[in-house]
Structures are given as C-alpha cells and as structure tokens.
Fold DegT/DnrJ/EryC1/StrS family aminotransferase.
Amino acid sequence: MIHLFQPQTGDEELAAVAEVFADKWLGHGPRTKAFEAEFAAHIGVDPEHMIFLNSGTAALFLALECLGLEEGDEVVLPSLSFLAAANAVLAVGARPVFCDVDPRTLNPDAAHIEAALTDRTKAVVVLHYGGYPGDIEAVAALCRDRGIPLVEDAACSVGSRVNGKAVGGFGDFAMWSFDAMKVLVTGDGGMLYVRDRELAARARRLAYHGLVQSSGIGHAKVSHRWWELEVPEIGRRVIGNDMTAAIGRVQLRRLPEFVARRREIVELYDRELAGAEGILPPPPLPAGHESTYYFYWVQFEEEIRDEIASELLAADIYTTFRYAPLHKVAAYRSEGRPLPSSDHAAGRTLCLPLHPGLSDDDVRTVAATLRKAVEACR
C-alpha cells in the first residue's frame, strides 16, 4: 500500500528517547523547555511565548479559552478546516461562523473573511491549507484594522513562510500539530504561540491545572512550604513531556531535509501530471511564499472524483479528501449560508500520497495510475 502519510523516524529519535530513559525524568522537564526554545527560534519569537502541549487540538482549545469568549460571540473560520477548530469554538460557548475559500487554493482570502464578519465577531481562525500560507498578510491586516484577534491554525505549516516570515507569526495566537501524520512528528503533541506576554503566562498556567506555581522540586528550592497551592482559575493538564519533546528536537533539526524531499515529490507530481486531461494540480505558490508541502491535491469533474478514489484504492494507493466542509455538519449549527466555492472544492478534490518515504518510482506509480483512472472514468 502506498500511504497518504508516513512519519520519518529512526535511530536519532530512538537515541534521544533512550537518553530520557537514562535520566529517569520522563515528564515535563528540561527537554520540554529546550524544545520550546528551539521551536521559538525557528519561528522567530521569544520562547516565553511558546508552549509545548500534548496535541495541536489542545493548543486550539487553549487559544480560544484565553480569548474569554462568551455565549453569543462569533468566531469566523473557513468551512474547509479540521473539525478541532469548530469544536474549540463550541467548547467555550461561542458560535462558529463559516466563511468560503478560494476553490483552487482552498484557503480563504481577506474578502472571504470580511464577508463573514458581524458586530458579534470576536475572533478569526484561519487555516493554512496543506502547508500553503494563503492570503495571511491581508487577513492579518484586516483583523488588526478591525481589532479582532487572529488565531493561525498552522497545524500543517511548520516550515511555511511569507516573505521570509514564518507562518504562525502573523496572528495573535498560532498552533502547530506534531501528531503521527504531520511533517514534524512527536507521536502526539502540539505547540501554542501567544503574542501577548500576560496571556502567554496565563495559557501556561491553564495548561497545567491553573497552578501559578507547581509544587515540584524546582519550587521547593525557592519557596517555603512548596506544597501549598495557588489556583486563581481552573485549568487542565495538557502539557507536553520530555519523551515527546526529545523526539521533537531531533525532528526539528531534520525539518529542512523533510521539506526539501516533499518539494521534490511535489515537483515530480507536477511533471508527471503535466498536460493530463481532466486533472487539475495545485496552483503555483505566489512570489515570496514558501510551503511545507503537506498536501498535494488534485481536482476533477465532480461526477468522477469518488470513482477515481476507489480505483486508486483498488491499486493499493490510499487517497482522501481533507477537509470535509464543516458547514454541512449538523453539530456546528451552521445557518445554511451558501459557500459555493467550498462546496465546489469539496466535491472535486483528492489528496494524493505525500511524504518523504515515497520513492520517485512510488510517485510515478501514483501519477500513472491516476492518469489511467481518470481516462477510464471520463
């Protein structure tokens, strides 16, 4: 089976975990802090504003919680997003309001966001689809002008940049995912960036039960009766740990090689599918944009998309469509506002296998099988 995603881990990651075992400190500790600092340097921000958590989903929930949203508040986000974003909005009592996207890039531009804003809009969550940054500069400018906090869902965009600036640095909050299917993996894990210093400190407290100071050994060295607790507000336990952080530090060092190989695969797909009738590849990146190349998506006539996916699966090639339109999900209480480009893309798009473990022959096999399936279906 040629898989859609596949983590790239090996001896370096094993050795890093072995060191954690040897030190006999598996939980939140020095390697967690080191990973936060190294990732902050990668993004170009102060490490005090970066928090390693147990998942990207936890980062989204924590970001929305820090915004202090209330019942009746609205959060605008693209319909073609992972469901965790909508779940995070509902979890704080707010209402998700879905906006449309460009039918080719599957990213919203500033006009899509603006069309969904109301006087009840209290935040915007924008996804960088497939690692492609999208119209983030204009979206960030719009949010600043309106005084609306911007949350960047950079789950798939750990190596993406616009004019040299890392994706995740444009908004007030940003999150990245390091689960087993992502570009940089820690098994499970995620990172949260909070621009405001006080909110960053609050997010760090909320990530560990709401404690102002933990009652551990470190606190014992600076405080009398270190076991006493100060809990100004209730939090959860969603912190990362030194085992996953150790893996993440190795993966971060290897990130340039991962992205370089992904770029090679995308370029090979482009060459192999060039001129293929009935197959529309991803649009080229705008000048100044750098992608992590998480997805390679192709589009067809709606009548044949599902049949093509079945033909590829029968040939042991796994494909899928990410992400199903959330405005069609009853749980999110969408008011039925028409999102024609989202619907258009959702019926025509398929994500092909893309990970550094693919050989050139694998890519050629996927492309050749796809071309044959499209010819047969058309």
Remarks:
- The chain has two domains: 11-252, 255-377.
- The chain has a mean pLDDT of 95.
- Residues 242-273 form the longest helix (32 residues).
